[in-house]
Design a protein that fits this description.
Layout (H helix, E strand, L loop, with lengths): L1 H22 L5 H24 L3 H14 L9 H7 L6 H26 L2
Helix pairs in contact: 1-2, 1-5, 2-5
Amino acid sequence: MIKFILSLLVSLGLAAGYHILVFGNEITTRNTSDALFVVGLFLFFISLVAISDAAKVFVGFSYTFKNMFKRHREKYSNFYDYATQKENREGYFGVSTLIISIVFLTIAFVLAAQYFDSL
């Protein structure tokens, strides 16, 4: 639960930072919707990568480059040893980030609907 709250606070901080960086101090329904949508979309795709373990593809690339460009350091004897050392053990990050991103996207769509209804 602590990790979820920490992820939520970081996500809200990212949304607030994006809002201030792009829109300044002008707080409107449209600007808030845009900021939540952009941050929610990035978080959604990052969480999909984390949940599906698609990041393991990059472990293969890093193994190849480390073995190609290491001169004097000890190389790994095989990919299995390297992959087990780099294994990501925690899947909680992906699920909590997915929930937060869906909430952000939902709030962004509701705010956008309110904005376009007021036109």
